[in-house]
Amino acid sequence: MNTNGIAFVLGPFTVKWYGILIASAMAIGLFLAAREGKKKGIVSDDILDVGLWVLPAAVIGARIYYVLFSWDYYSVHPEEIIKIWHGGMAIHGGLIGAILVGILYGKIKKKPFWLFADVAMPSVALGQAIGRWGNFFNQEAYGYETNLPWAMYIDGAYRHPTFLYESIWDLGLCLFLLWYLNRPPKKQGYVLAFYAFGYSLGRFFIEQLRTDSLMLGPFRMAMVISVAGMLIGVAIFFWQKKYGKDYSYLMEGVSHRAS
Q1: Is residue 136 a contact partner of residue 147, using CB atoms and an 8 Å limit?
Q2: How many other CB atoms are there within 10 angstroms of residue 154's CB atom?
Q3: How many CB atoms lie within 10 A of CB 160?
């Protein structure tokens, strides 16, 4: 399928599907996090407040990461650095930015980071599932040529729709995390651990099919980060299992007023 990625033109403004999908992913993610947070005693205002910190950090982190690992191009075309609507957002950079700012938010506002992170992880996975369709409309993040029956015609050939593979994986991960989050109370940080391991596992295998991987020498950067992500997920799980507090402890510091 050929597409220029444009959703509609309104006077001098051109609105692209990539931007619509990223914005939609953020809005739906906030709604889902507010709903799940309410079940854990977090008021909606707190979810919106942390969103004002974390979402810009995620966008900036995702762009910085992509630009740094594509510096050969952006050093020649610096005017393209801020044009995120042209594509070029690396989810690993977004996650790093969001987590760092989330930790900072927790320290400044004296909010329980692990609880907020657990509530946010299904939204993160769902946001990624939605956002990957922006890659479809931009005709990017696709795979090698294949004759499989579900191949999509992209860039002059039938190819693995790796953005579709990851979208399906992320949606399944979101559903699993929602199910786990709503089981009887467990240690804080477990949902974050399952996200880190689950997303990284899927990305590790899907990345091998892509043609546009960011590279670190001879290695695909996303695969390197995915291995690290799986190890971090396992480490968080066992650390929290031994030292973490359960939800009932965390709830003592979280407002229960209706929202």
Answers
A1: no
A2: 22
A3: 22
Are 194 and 180 in contact by the 8 Å Cβ rule? The answer is yes
Residue 8 CA to residue 105 CA, distance in Å, equals 37
Task: Name the pTM for this structure.
Answer: 0.88
SS3 145: strand
Specify whether the CB–CB gap between 25 and 32 falls below 8 A: no
Task: Provide the residue count of the chain.
Answer: 259
SS3 158: strand
The residues facing 246 across adjacent strands are: 187
Q: Where are the alpha helices (DSSP H) in the chain?
A: 17-39, 44-68, 71-74, 91-109, 113-138, 162-181, 190-207, 221-243, 247-250
Q: For residue 126, what are the contacts with CB-CB under 8 A and spacing of at least 6?
A: 25, 28, 29, 32, 170, 171, 174
Contact 204, 223 (CB under 8 A): yes
Q: For tokens 């922006």, what's the residue?
A: 134
Each residue's pLDDT expressed in tens, for the chain with a length of 259 residues: 446 788 888 888 888 888 899 999 999 999 999 999 998 889 999 999 999 999 999 999 999 999 998 999 999 999 999 888 777 888 999 999 999 999 999 999 999 999 999 999 999 999 999 999 988 888 888 999 999 999 999 888 999 999 999 999 999 999 999 999 998 878 999 999 999 999 999 999 999 999 989 888 899 999 999 999 999 999 999 999 999 888 764 445 444 443 3
